[in-house]
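STRUCTURE REQUEST FORM
Protein name: DNA mismatch repair protein MutL
Source organism: Geofilum rubicundum JCM 15548
Requested output: structure tokens
Priority: standard
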Amino acid sequence: MSDIIQLLPDSVANQIAAGEVIQRPASVIKELVENAIDAGATEIKVIVKEAGRTLIQVIDNGSGMTETDARMAFERHATSKISAAVDLFALRTMGFRGEALASIAAIAQVELKTKTPDNDLGTHIEIAGSRIQKQEPISCDTGCNFLVKNLFFNVPARRKFLKTNATELRHIIHEFQRITLANPKVAFVLTHNDQPLMNLPAANYRQRIAGVMGRHINNQLIPVNTEATVISIHGFIGTPQGSRKTAGDQFFFVNNRYMRHPYLHKAVMDAFANLIQPDAYPSYFLYFDIDPEMIDVNIHPTKTEIKFEDEKLVWKVLNASVRESLGKHNIVPSIDFDTEGQIDIPSRVNTEVTAPRIHVNPHYNPFDTEPAQTREREVTSKDWESLYQGFQTETNHLDTHEEPETILLASRGNDTPLQESFVDNTEDRPIQDSTYFQIKNRYILTPVKSGLMVIDQRRAHERILFERFLSIIQTQKSTTQQVLFAEAINFSADDAALIRDIQTDLAVFGFDIKENQTNTFTVSGVPSEFDKVNTSQLLEDLLEAYKTGEVDAASEVKEQMAAIMARNARMKAGERLSGDQMSHLVGQLFQCSMPGYTSSGQTVFSIIENEEMEKRFK
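Status: completed
Returned output:
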């Protein structure tokens, strides 16, 4: 039998290694930008075209490389960060394996221009598929200028699995956010298709967070600062009011390196227990400083997972830090043990102290009850109306949790007849001239031939709006209501990218939204059905639906958006309806094609059969 084991060529081995390191264009940006930070750069520019498919350019003003280093940097396992295995446990730099440039050069066409401060001329290298195409001296600026073109040009199977440009751009923005948040002293610029997405000058941590996530988050940040023997934690957490239904604004950094850690995430969530909804996520930006010997960063190809020597201890310190910050800002009660029993007692200044006065009734007779009874009768007869003051309230603004057991009755006249085409089954159709009852400002009751129909008024309204929006999509005729004061909404870079993708679809429904500044959109008009809807909350719900996968960009986006907007535009919980309003709502419901269910499949109405009611009285 002949020998079958053989060594792989370097080009094939590099392509296999690239599969672990370079998964998408965002991975290229991560590796190149981290190398620029390790080189001491203070300004980094990232230029992307077609979401990185055709071009990724990273320009920095770091230390640059010599001619020999520039050539050696593209070899596998070539690095300046470590020289022995023990160095892995003292790392404070980003890239250290020496696989990034070799992997990128294996699956793309790479061009490098670099120069050190000591040299007058730099080096120009061109590589394609791990093969050197050109190397020559060149006049260039100090630092490095990487151009990565036609990613996965020689691996068509990998290129085919790339997502849409919008999706890949969001991955690039997410990766860019992680790097910029960890390095606030470095200035960053991100440009996509000649459109600036981020322009972040050097700043402090709070300013950088506001620059990356949007100015609106600045008022929702609570500082965290804890110094322990094993670890130091600083950064910011968001207020409970700023929590969102989807995860995304949660960031851990260890020695300026981004990491994901579900176990430590639970420590933060535990501190927010009973302050936010169970399905909500608070935002946090927490930075850990720890001895590199107590962590292991070399456990994952993308280096986003870190193993701690004592995770339980870090969990306790983190949990206590977040609780302390929430307590200091009056979010939860806390006891300050640093006061050592000192209590601030308010003192009176420049106030005159007078002796208390005693009022005595000289005519008081404990054995004479007649005057007291007379006075009681006088007060009762004279001031009885005052006893009822303050008990009259507006019934239209009752809280849904404290509303009385009221039943609103409405008789349906002949002026609003129900159409025979509401439903196919006449047994399930409200009877002509039927009566409507509203219970607990939530349900509408009306008799039908088969029994008693119970309608959820909010779900009914949602179904009506959903089919109305579907009609707008089909006819392309929407009614836009101009707002009195245009609302400017600031988004983070990734949310702004999503808004740009759905901007055309929103215009179909009647939204007038324009981007007047980078990542800032002005809402000048809304659909006529949205006169009482918070536009910023609606857009946030749409973005969360995209992030959670509720809206699939590959399917019918407009129909999914119609369902989300119908849920946001439906009537508020506990809204009291008049008789005409109930009659009109039920009439519109049974004109829908599917009145029995909402767009998400929830039941709109249910019928209590006559037989069931008869059984209850046997």
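Reviewer notes: The CA atoms of residues 105 and 131 lie 8 Å apart. Residues 333-349, 372-382, 390-407, 409-426 have pLDDT under 50 and may be disordered.
Form closed.
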